[in-house]
Records
---
Amino acid sequence: MKKRNNPLRLTLSYVLLIIIAVVSIYPVLWIFLSSLRPGAALFSERLWPEAFTLSHYGELFNNPSFMYGRWYLNTLKIAFFTMIFSTLMVTLGMYALSRFRFRGRQTILSTMLILGMFPSFMSMIAIYIILLQIKLLDTHAALILVYSSGAVLGGFIVKGFFDTIPRSLDEAARIDGASHLRVFTSIILPLSKPMLTYVALTSFTGAWMDFIFARLVLRTKENWTLAVGMWDLVNRYQDSNFTMFAAGAVLIAIPITLLFVFLQRFLVQGLTTGASKG
Amino acid sequence: MKQQHVPVSAPANREKQHRMTAAILSIILQGLGQLYNRQWIKGICLLLLEGAGLAYLLPRLSQAVWGIWTLGENTQRFVKVNGSTVLQRGDHSIFLLLEGIIVLLVFFVFIVVYILNIRDAYLTGLAREEGKKTLGAAASLRNMMDKNFPYLFLSIPALGVLFFTIMPILFTITLAFTNYSAPDHIPPAKLVDWVGFKTFSDLIQLKSWSHTFYGVLTWTVIWAVLATVTTYFGGVLVALLIEQRGIRFKKLWRTIFILPYAIPQIISLLLMRNLFNGQFGPINTYMRAFGLEGLPWLTDPFWAKVTVIVVNMWIGIPVSMVLILGVLTAIPRDLYEAAEVDGASAFQKFRIITMPFILFATTPVLIMQFAGNFNNFNVIFLLTNGNPLRGDYQYAGATDLLVTWLYKLTLDNNKYNMASAVGIIIFIIIASFSIWNFRRSKSFKEEDMIQ
């Protein structure tokens, strides 16, 4: 009975899906093709270029006023260390908050929630002055330090995940004489692989893409990250160097995109467990 | 996990009042009580800690209080020394304020340790009176590893949060009550003074400020609601489309649709800025090819608002889609089977089972997204930079949110006090809304029932 209206509905669904797919892909395709187009202008008559060239990619690394390679390495370094430290801090902290009932726990949870709601610039001037005082301004260590210590506030999803791991598991291990640390490393950690992936990935991409804070802290061009550099490129040379911007964008987006597509299973798990369990 | 000794009313004829002696000794000097209790290592550690604390605090504390109270008394000026003019450094109000806050925070930690020290001496003394053996250093450490494990695990993140989140916020809040702003009160050339609530009353009462404030606030609320609703229901729609029975290549669709989410925002937003370029952008080029005029996407106040919402959908729908795909897999199959037995139509099943389930599972996320959109700096700043400019606004454009306005006030115009006031107001709005909702949402109430 219901089968009858299915063909129409399915066709309609496919049409919709195809439209959404085109909208999703078009900008991506456009920037990719632009990066291969000869010339430098933003304007082009057609989507598909008449000729292809890789020269813009070469130019990125050879043009002395851009230092693209340098920025790439800077960004990789910052994102990598931020990922390590944030994941460590978030898992340790949230494990404690999820598993133990101790005095001040509720206060800590509420404080975290409230602190997470302050607009991040509220603290920018102060952090700037602090970094100036401890002579960390214009260093990558400053970014890593600030990103990692801020990551804890976003840890509710992790706590939600730990909450779903049955207590009986660690209680049994405790009875067998395992220490808290051992319970954590040999029971909780292996079980939370999807969550760890999620945290690591989001903190990596967070540091990889951050623009506001990086722009404030990194004062010299050699120390810039990709985000700051690319923003500068668009703001200053938009029309004259568009194809180069496109090439730079492709090189930034491809690794991150592959990572996401590859890890989307973990992402789904991470987001949903965090969502339904608060 | 309770570790306190239950205070037993000690018999009056007890010979030694260890607890009082120990506590008083600890009040006199931190660690003395522990030494009296024969906890040598702990006592020495506490003594050293007090020494270090005093060495840090004593020379600074009065200076800190003076600095916070006065915000400096001398401006920098030129003085004649041996016939030549030299620039003499004055007080830098802002450094004084920040250093003052740091010293007070250290002082606060110091006091907390001091109180804990007295409490510890008292409790150990009590244990001795009751004839219990006091713990040695090794045993104390083991006890700490076991009983105080969560504190140990939390201490490092807490330190980071204290210095890079709480302290900066305290500092910024205080700025709202000063007149720290260009052009008249920028150190080191000029001093900054406390002005109480004047900044807030200016913001609300002064025509030039209040007009901008209410205008930007209204747009921020409209934006946050529209951005959240469009991406959320867009995500629901896409997820349902993919998960329909009979749709093939589910994995392929999912991978394609996740693409906008995967591309770094800084790239996709700068890219969109080019796509919607009124002169050369491909969107207008295509429209002209179809004989249409083309639209002033980023330069007209109305269309710029439309553009940011559309672009935000492109970026945000995939996130909701991923989320809702996950929720959909969690809906129990038998609910649908039961509904089918009762002869429910596809739409009825959606309305009665699917949607309530999705809403229930994602309410907390929805609230977080609303709060996130309220402060969505990236989309506005990278796409339009708040433009097109509005002549009747104070340093703001038509698409500026409160948060990007705050950025402009701070970094471009040095109106620090006004920016802090705006920041505090943003915080009050977001925080009260989120807390109210969070408390209502089930996941908070039932936190402990999940185990």
Note: Chain A has one domain: 56-274.
---
Amino acid sequence: MRYAETGYNLEVDLTTGNIERVETDPELVELHLGGHGTAARIIWERVPPEVKPFDPENLLIFSAGLLEGTSAPGANRTIINCISPVTNYLAHSMMGGYFGPELKMAGYDKIIFRGKSPKLIYLWIHNDKVEIRDASHLRGVGAQRTAEMIREELGDPRIQVASIGLAGENRVYTASIEHSHSSASRGPAPVMGDKNIKAIAVRGTKDVNVFNAEKLFEMSFNSLKSVAKNPNVGDWMAYTWDDSFHHDNFSWGNSRVRRKGYWSAELQERWKQLTKRLLNRKTGCYNCLKECKLSIQHPGQPAYGAKCFSKISWHMCSFDELDFSWEILAVAQEYGLDNFSTPQTIALAVELYDNGILTDEDMPDFPENSKERFYYLLEKIVRREGIGDILANGSYAAARQIGRGAEAYEHNTIKKFEQLPLKLGKVNFPYFLMFSTGEKINITQIQGSYPQDPLRNPEKRQKFCDGWVAAPERFKKFYMEWEPRTDPSMEASCHICDWNETMHYIDDAVGTCAFLSSFRGQFGGKPAYHIYNFPKYINAATGLNLDSDDVWQIARRNRNLVRAINVGRGMRRADEKPPEDHWKVRLPEQEQELLSMYYKFKGWTDDGIPTKPTLDKLDLGFVADELIRRGILTGEETNVYEETTTLPAPTDEQLEAALYSASEKVRMAQGGG
Amino acid sequence: MGEKVKKIVKTIKVNLDECNGCRTCEMVCASFHAKPRYSNSNPNRSRIRVVIDERAGVWVPIRATDYTKAECDGRRTYTIKGREYSECSFCGTICPARDLFKEPDSGLPLKCDMCESDPALEEPMCVQACGLNCLTYEEEEVWVEAEEQVKPAEIELSLKSLVDKYGMGKLADIVARMSQKG
């Protein structure tokens, strides 16, 4: 019997309509854990660099992480991979909600789509029964409305649906896959549209077998209670009334204008009253008590979900009143557009127009009012009409298609992908590395285990370190040595970047949410999941006997595998740079020195390519062979990473104390039954 | 007036405004009732289900109540915020009209038993797991009329009056027919 994973993938050939239930190799779990890790392995093996994003040979993979469908709290992320049309690299996309656990309970770890359907379809999975169904009646229908119609059509409100709206159908690069009140952006939605898949509907009623269910349940149940009380996990920024952090620190418009001091008591009160009027309630995802999403409902309209960033993105890009975001989000989500890149792309177009690069010829009847301008361009983009056909390719590609100097205004992307609109002072070493070299190509998907600033008072710093159960010892040392207003050393910066990305790679393989783990280690030092308790969850779920160093090694393997996919597609050192004007003061020489040091630390060449000794050490010798065959490596490169250790690990007592205090211990019924 | 006796009434109060749709209550319910205990966490085996309609902003935890062989003969519909729901939508009865609260494999009904167990839990698992104050457990002591003791002499007296009225033969026939029907 396979534990935690079902051991089966669903392979759907859209060109022929063939559907197969394929048994997977158990060894892959030991090597990659699952989720993003095993998906990367499949992409490596089956999608060579010659395959372009819209080729039928591009795969679209929906994965449930290893711990999904078990009692592990917050293990509910659906991981979606393909080669992204935005970057031509591996797309890294995820969503919360209920889809992943439901897929597991239907009996599958992954759905792998290949080919292209000749007509618009949706896939209906009901345990062992899987069918491709006609979706012509759903063409142009909003993403959430599609889910509703499919549930009505199939007669079960418990069906979980992932769908695209008009934007995905029209292969808009900033489209998103919508499910529940969650969404997956960064590449897969236009590929889903290209493959003519309108939606996937899944209903699963099977058990997910685990190795030691009682142990797993005990850990999970206590963690659930701990998570509910823990103020440092979840996404409090989704619903905090004081939103000065975002408004004062993130840039407005085309990620260019800082409005420090914008937030005021009067504004906050107005914001509060407005939101209270529209707020249904805060909502969460499967088996997680945290409430990271807001259900917003305008009178007479369907409700939609908003998150910490989406609630501010539109009005900050448009310089409009706060209520604009609440208003346009309902429209954007029904079209299935992401709320991260799309408003930034529209703001870029407005700036190009205001600077005479785009003209009335490009944008006939372009309104004067900012809000109306946004609606005007939104409608053009989702339909790919006129200038919308260019803007639909995202900021990077659109600026280059427009030309006439538009490239200079496009300044907030890394590797063609939109970044958080930040404008900071002097370059920050660990963040320089995370921004530049992250394979996920988005900073929020990499950072979070290490604090962003040192505590000023050394005693407080020491106290923080004393209770910092999530941190391997070396990070406590780095933190204690970190003087306020200085950079961590270059050596520390390499380690900090490495740790931050490692925790995300584990999350993405097992399907746990970053808000309980990799993104929340920076606050309070006691996230629900960390390098020391992950092995215990994985052991109880799968029976695999891993320690923290083993799990770190798997994350390293997955990281290098994704790196190899992208290197095969042409990514090199020259691409590894943050947005042009992210920091006011740049330090070009130190940045390059840092980059070289980081590559060395990772066991890569000076051009950022994993070497053969490194890949061999990670059981990825076949990857090295392919890179040599393609002339990307000579095979003579000798650099290899040095293993870092997570020892000494905290004792079980220390871990337990960090989870909950004795007085809060949860009573569990033993025996009986 | 009959005698009053003390009885414990167990209640799980549901505050709909606090439910966030996480369905953790489903997971722990299924786990607690699994045999062996905690051997699976399949919410399809839960005795509590959260009915979710995100577009309508509706999140409603419902516990399985009684089993019935027959479905309702006529159903009402309810309109909430402009959307119509059938009476089935929020019903806890285990009935032939739908597969809610039935074992997915056997189809056998799953009824909420307030997590009765030995040793007893202080609160049912769903309540323990709900950190949102959506589900709260209450025990209330209530005084109820004690059931009247059967007094054979009174039954005999009543039967005698029926014999007097209809005759022994007819009454015996009716009793025999009733006992055959069961």
Note: Chain B has a mean pLDDT of 89.
